[in-house]
Amino acid sequence: MSIAAEPQTRTVALIGNPNTGKSTVFGALSGVQQRVGNYPGVTVEKKTGRMTVDGKRWTLIDLPGTYSLAPRSLDEMVAVDVMLGRRPDTPKPDVILCIVDANNLERNLYLVSQVLELGRPTVVALTMTDLAEDRGTTLDLPKLRERLGVPVVPIRAHKRIGLDALKTALAETATQEQPASAPESPFPEPFQGEVARIEAWLADARPGLPPLPRYLVERLLLDTSGYLEGHVALKNGNVEGLHAEILAARQRLAEAGCPVPAVEAMARYGWAASMLDGVVTRPDEPRVTSGDRVDRVLTHRVWGTLIFVAVMALIFQAVFTWSIPLMDLIDAGVGGLATLVEGVMAEGALRSLIIDGMIAGVGGVIVFLPQIFILFFFLGILEDCGYLARAAYLMDRLMTRLGLSGKSFIPLLSSFACAIPGVMATRVIEDRRDRMTTILVAPLMSCSARLPVYTLLIAAFIPPVAVAGFVSLQAMTMVAMYAVGVITAAAVAWALKKTAFKGPTPPFVMELPAYKWPSPRVVLHRMFERGWSFVRRAGTIIFAVSIVMWALLYFPRLPESTEAAFAQQIAALEDQREAADDAEAVEAIDAQIATLEARADGEQKRLSLLGRAGRVIEPVVRPLGWDWRIGAAAIASFPAREVVVATLGVIFDVGSDVEGEEGASRLQVALREAEHRDGRPLFTIPVALSIMVFFALCAQCVSTLAVIRRETNSWGWPLFCFAYMTVLAYFGAMLVYQVGTWIAA
């Protein structure tokens, strides 16, 4: 054993199967000293933390949960490269910490065998030993340590039991450059012989380059998808030669009774069984625990589904309605701050920038925080207590028809309240293809921001009649708008899984974790971590876009003569109000002043760059039944679709205060009375339906796009999402208008 020089900061990489408590161990070791980001160029979440052991600083790297260390995509390659120290943006780990569930040792040791083959100093942390004891399972830990050749430390991270022993084991192991003993390969001799043959071939093809780690050479032979072959640098460029060499090796292995890739499962599970022989003792009759009895109900097709619907209804209710008081409070605070600034600053561009650009931009970010906190509070409880895995199991049959897994259901359901927490909730999906597909279709769910648009147009243009004598046509229209998003999302998900994310539907292999009381510390930490992540990452982008939109609406300004004319009329009315001697007269004058201010605001918006853009795109939106005013309102709502109602109020000279019942009523009247230049009514039922379908399908939410960028670590995916949804929205709206007009005629 050689001793390495003492570095100033040591690094440990955590890896383990999903649901082994790895995140809990990471949180217990690092506390609040955590950072979440992405590895450059990929969608893999990079979670790092810090801890101190015997006065020395340590960096913790929490790798994504995985059942196997087989790189078949760029994302999965990251985990292998981090542990081998092949990523320039991440320090080479001094020690690898494998988190292993004591209740599923056979399956967990499959991953451990792969980690040991990397030849890196390793420590095994054994979790959920108390639950194993409850099931009557006994473990001979000294014998397991001896056979694995690495420290094995039992811990209960949520109660902070065993953490000191774990830190001591990490500190002692980290001083080793190599493991105390070389791991024995689980593969049969014919396989090892073929690996040696390919190593020799690569040595000739890569002169001057460092030898490829033996583990990656084994993966070249085992990876039948060919992904890894495309990532091996060859000096002579003889890719075909490497491929032929690998195919020949697989042929020889098949003839020797070691077919690829089955040989790996046989070898590793055989190795795991030999490691556990005499180590694990279980009762002759499996002990039925209280968790087993609860599972019979929670995973039952009928009772489990009913309970799941009730749980989701509770969460949906909480996100959708319980957050409103807090959102109103934030909204009032933002409004109060704007009023304060308005009172101390003179009217002008700077005041408008601060109030309408900066304060409104920041307010547009933090107003979503209550929804995000509430959603992740409940998700944290469900995940930590073990129910989330049962929910995914129940929904798997439904989601499989779209090529997704049951884990996609909760993010999509959350998106009905707001796509932002919905997109962030996709972090529970391990499979990259499923996660990306879910992220890209989540914005199609009709979120709460679309409701004001539906409500305004349905109330104004859909007759309040009953269909079949008892079903409201207005209610049917509202349901239809929600159905448009759901059906389109199903079609898009199916298309994405057949094209961009093509691949076999991953088998839904999920170990149902044991039930336990959720740790308040873990739940609250996850809630605040994800809330802060949203503010920090998405907030900057949203803030910048808000400033740009403010400039587009503010410039150029009305001519001085026009502004002076409005100011003169308002001043005259204010003089009349001063002289008025009864409340009725004052109220009438206030209404005239409000009308004049709304007209001035409307004139300004029509003259602005955004208003001019509306005129430019009028030929484009005409097939949808729109004129330039509706087009300008649609453009203005691209940063946030909910602003379209206020924008319509401004453009149609009603003013931006249209949230109350009176304001909405005035806007509905204005829309009904609006006309084309030739005197035809601007708004008809087909036009109203066209607008609603456009808003149901279009990605008019810069906050959501910013979160997609943050979650995918790429601008390409949010741009793709924006493009495909806008195209769908345009043609969907055109189809509805043209067909509706044809039927009406």
Describe the structure.
- By secondary structure, this protein is α/β, with parallel strands linked by helices.
- The chain is built from 31 helices and 11 strands.
- Helix 14 packs antiparallel against helix 21.
- The N and C termini lie far apart (88 Å).
- The mean pLDDT is 82.
Blueprint of the fold:
Layout: E1 9-16, H1 22-30, E2 34-38, E3 45-53, E4 56-62, H2 74-84, E5 95-101, H3 105-117, E6 122-127, H4 129-134, E7 138-139, H5 141-148, E8 152-154, H6 163-174, H7 189-205, H8 214-222, H9 239-255, H10 262-276, E9 280-281, H11 290-298, H12 303-344, H13 349-366, H14 369-385, H15 387-400, H16 409-414, H17 419-424, H18 432-441, H19 451-461, E10 466-467, E11 471-472, H20 473-498, H21 520-554, H22 560-579, H23 583-607, H24 609-616, H25 618-621, H26 628-636, H27 644-651, H28 661-673, H29 685-697, H30 702-712, H31 716-744
Relative helix content: 55-70%
Number of helices: 31
What portion of residues belong to β-strands? 5-15%
> How many beta-strand elements?
11
What does the average pLDDT come to? 82
State the major sheet: 7 strands, mixed
Give the radius of gyration. Answer: 31 Å
Order of strands, main sheet, comes to 2-3-4-1-5-6-8
Q: Residue ranges: pLDDT <50 for 5 or more in a row?
A: none
User: Distance between termini?
Assistant: 88 Å
Global morphology? elongated
Structural class: alpha/beta
